[in-house]
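Subject: design request, 646 residues
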């Protein structure tokens, strides 16, 4: 029963190889089927013997079985010669050993002569061991699944030779014959299992073996430098696939505008440029792999393979990140054994090479853009240097003009002070002498003369006030020392100075809690006094109600002065902040038209803004935005701190 199981393993591999040969006409599968043909015949003969119930086979079937069994080492060596170089001397030597060990059995029949039997099994073991050695050497040249499967096949070949050696030497040792026989059966069973696993492995085991190849390719591609060009990346991929598969030449074809384009080739022979078409490549991919390279063919790709000295070609689809498909082509001078395991996997790993190639293309584009950007930066730098030189010239001119303007302003301020002083002296004399004239007239003045004198005095007083306002306007907005100013204390001082006017007009002045701002106290006091004074002056029939408010903005503090006075038309909102611009006749409201212009100069001198919101007949709100102290948080920062604290 054990013998049948062992021979069934060999027969299973034979049937599989025979079917593959019948389907693809692959000579390598034919040679493989011949290796396992003897054991298959022995299985059939053993089944016939047991069915017929005879103790041993007749002479002719027995000699046929012995002949086929002794021919297996030669058939194994024939298979090895198909996948790797084997010298003719070794092949002829193996055949000579087969002939020498087989002929005596035709004279002895089924009789067993110990010397002949021992010589036969030793010769069988030597040839079988040499074939196993050559297979193992070929396995060391491979990686991944081919290496593992060739190693198993070489081990099973060696174990089979050892099995026959043990079976033939058993009768020479009477006491240990049973142990040796049992050992030979175990060795035969191991050999059969090894052959089945090597030539008929399950899919999961092939995937495990191929994992080593995948890791090797992945590591090679992952170690590609970032500066590598796409051409160098594909060349690296082709070289790695050649090392992993053992092929003589590896070609990488990618889709192009006019058909497949060879982007990389790694191999010993490069007779000419690879030329193929999309249809030709697809036809080769659709063929059962591997494909023989005939001497005469209409396929440009197969013709190239023949020119390169290849006997077979293996083509698998090359998976790309895009929807397009390339091809990985492996050329071999000898028919590959087990290469189909890794070929398709290597084609699938082409997607990683494509990603690395795209990375290299992107890096090259970035380098080109960086070079272009650097050139632009150099050009712009040169332009900026020219512009900087021109700007420095303009700055020198502006500095000179500013210095001249500063001197002019100083002279203008001195002139304004002197002029105001010189103009006020005659005005004081006019007013004084007019009073003396009235006092010293013995009989008093008549009505006309009194009117003339009153007009002279009034005009002189207005002139005096105008000169004072002009002097104040010229001094407003000048360079002052900026420091924190408490608006609460400033408002208190302003209300004290306006106490009589507030009482006479029966006004009510309220205010919010006022902040500390970054400005000048005298300037802010003048600002609030002008705004509140205007609210008292331009009041309606109702008692004035004035409110001073404050609001924190991102840019600083917004101060407001709101009243219930006569208001104004917003069409004149900008005009009222200009010098000498009045909206009412002089006889109706007193003033020179300079107060709001002074307010504007004060606010703008500290980097602020001023404006008005008003409704004619319903009151006005004058507002100004003034800077906050540097160490005071803005409204956004205050809100953020409040949320965080909450």
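Subject: RE: design request

Done. Sequence follows.
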């Amino acid at each position: 029963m054990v013998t049948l199981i062992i021979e069934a393993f060999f027969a299973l591999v034979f049937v599989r190889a025979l079917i593959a040969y019948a389907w693809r006409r692959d000579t390598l599968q034919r040679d493989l089927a011949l290796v396992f043909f003897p054991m298959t015949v022995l299985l059939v003969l053993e089944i016939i013997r047991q069915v017929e119930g005879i103790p041993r086979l007749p002479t002719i079937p027995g000699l046929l079985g012995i002949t086929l069994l002794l021919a297996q080492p030669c058939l194994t060596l024939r298979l090895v010669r198909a996948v790797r170089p084997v010298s003719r001397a070794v092949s002829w030597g193996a055949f000579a050993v087969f002939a020498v060990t087989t002929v005596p059995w035709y004279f002895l029949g089924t009789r067993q002569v110990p010397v002949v039997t021992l010589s036969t099994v030793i010769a069988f073991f030597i040839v079988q061991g040499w074939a196993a050695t050559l297979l193992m050497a070929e396995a060391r040249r491979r990686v991944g699944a081919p290496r593992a499967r060739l190693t198993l096949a070489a081990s099973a070949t060696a174990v089979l030779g050892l099995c026959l050696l043990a079976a033939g030497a058993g009768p020479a040792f009477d006491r240990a014959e049973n142990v040796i026989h049992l050992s030979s059966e175990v060795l035969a069973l191991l050999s059969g299992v090894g052959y089945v696993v090597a030539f008929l492995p399950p899919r999961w085991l092939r995937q495990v073996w191929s994992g080593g190849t995948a890791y090797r390719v992945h590591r090679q591609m992952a170690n590609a430098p970032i500066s590598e060009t796409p051409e160098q990346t594909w060349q690296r991929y082709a070289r790695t696939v050649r090392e992993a598969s053992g092929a003589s030449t590896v070609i990488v074809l990618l889709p192009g505008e006019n058909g497949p384009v060879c982007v990389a080739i790694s191999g010993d022979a490069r007779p000419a440029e690879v030329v193929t078409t999309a249809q030709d490549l697809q036809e080769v991919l659709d063929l059962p792999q591997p494909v023989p390279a005939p001497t005469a063919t209409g396929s440009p790709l197969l013709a190239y393979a023949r020119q390169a000295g290849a006997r077979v070609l293996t083509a698998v689809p090359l998976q790309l990140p895009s929807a397009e498909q390339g091809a990985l082509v492996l050329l071999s001078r000898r028919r590959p054994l087990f290469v189909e395991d890794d070929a398709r996997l290597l084609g699938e790993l082409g997607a990683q090479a494509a990603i690395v190639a795209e990375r290299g293309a992107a890096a090259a584009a970035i380098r080109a853009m960086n070079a272009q950007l650097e050139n632009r930066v150099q050009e712009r730098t040169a332009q900026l240097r020219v512009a900087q030189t021109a700007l420095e010239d303009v700055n020198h001119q502006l500095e000179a003009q500013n210095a001249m303007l500063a001197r002019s302003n100083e002279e203008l301020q001195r002139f304004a002070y002197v002029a105001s002083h010189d103009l006020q002296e005659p005005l004081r004399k006019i007013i004084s002498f007019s009073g003396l004239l009235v006092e010293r007239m013995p009989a008093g003045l008549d009505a006309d003369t009194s009117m003339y004198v009153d007009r002279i005095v009034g005009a002189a007083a207005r002139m005096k006030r105008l000169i004072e306002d002009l002097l104040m306007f010229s001094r407003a907005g000048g360079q002052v020392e900026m420091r924190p100013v408490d608006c609460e204390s400033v408002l208190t001082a302003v209300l004290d100075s306006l106490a009589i006017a507030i009482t006479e007009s029966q006004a009510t002045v309220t205010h919010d809690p006022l902040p500390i701002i970054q400005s000048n106290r005298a300037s802010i006091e003048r600002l609030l006094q002008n705004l509140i004074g205007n609210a008292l002056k331009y009041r309606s029939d109702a008692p004035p109600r004035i409110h001073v408010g404050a609001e924190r903005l991102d840019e600083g503090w917004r101060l407001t002065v709101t009243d219930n006075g006569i208001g104004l038309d917003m069409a004149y909102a900008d005009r009222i902040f200009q010098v000498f611009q009045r909206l009412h006749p002089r006889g109706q409201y007193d003033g020179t038209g300079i107060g709001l212009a002074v307010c504007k100069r004060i606010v703008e001198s500290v980097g602020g803004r001023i404006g008005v919101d008003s409704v004619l007949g319903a009151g006005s709100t004058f507002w100004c935005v003034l800077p906050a102290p540097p160490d005071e948080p803005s409204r956004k920062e205050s809100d953020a701190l409040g949320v965080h604290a909450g």
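The two ends are 88 Å apart (CA to CA).
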